[in-house]
Amino acid sequence: MPSKEIMNSDEMSRTLNRIVYQILENMKDTGEVCLVGIRRGGAHLADRLNEIFKSEGKPDIRVGYLDITLYRDDLTSIADYPVLQGTEINFDVIGKHIILVDDVIFTGRTTRAAIDALIDLGRPQKISLAVFIDRGHRELPVQPDFVGKYVPTSRDEIIEVALKEQAGSDYVRIINK
Q: Where does the record place the Phosphoribosyltransferase domain (predicted)?
């Protein structure tokens, strides 16, 4: 499968900074803001965003991780025995402004599953969505509030966001199926 790198580590770092600045511009008070990364890639990105918030003088943003496996609408087609990665949210979501963090938004189905999983934990005051890459092709009426980069794709392409925490290095590639 031919692929093309569209972002390197430095570009990814600048993009994460851009997302933080978008959030800061739209938030008057970050006191009730919590980042919740969607497992897997979104969890690592939430940690990175939190580090940038700290460097910007916002050290009190809480971070959690959400496993949406059992909320997926394609659960029966992904595996007979899906692997659960575990939800780790060590704070009460009730009344908080939750920013869901994911690496790529495509159809919107992952976001829908994440909202369902989050609501089962309590009723946040607000839920926003921050994505690293928006590739289009929505099947549900879901739009991110904060976007690192828009990458128009065809349905015959895949966006691969590699993170050093998982893959050993940072890059984003478009892969032709």
A: 4-145
Residue type, 19: I
What whole-number distance in Å separates Cα of residue 11 and Cα of residue 17?
10
| pLDDT tens profile 92-102 | 999 999 999 99
CATH of region 3-72+84-176 = 3.40.50.2020
- Predicted confidence at residue 77, as pLDDT, reads 54
Question: Tens of pLDDT along 51-70?
Answer: 999 999 999 999 999 999 98
Please work out, in degrees rounded to the nearest 5, the angle formed at the alpha carbon of residue 152 by the alpha carbons of 160 and 161: 15
Judged against a pLDDT cut of 60, whether residue 10 lies above it is answered with yes
DSSP 34-55: EEEEETTHHHHHHHHHHHHHHH
Apex 19 CA angle, 17 and 21, nearest 5:
70
- pTM for this entry: 0.94
Size of the chain, expressed as the number of residues it contains: 177
Residue among 97, 95, 82 at smallest CA distance from 39: 82
**Amino acid occupying residue 71:** Y
Q: What span, in angstroms and rounded, lies between the C-alpha atoms of 64 and 36? A: 5
Angle formed by the axes of helices 9-26 and 41-55, to 10°?
A: 70
- The domain segmentation of the chain, as residue ranges, is 3-72+84-176
Helix (H, G, I), strand (E, B) or coil at 168: coil
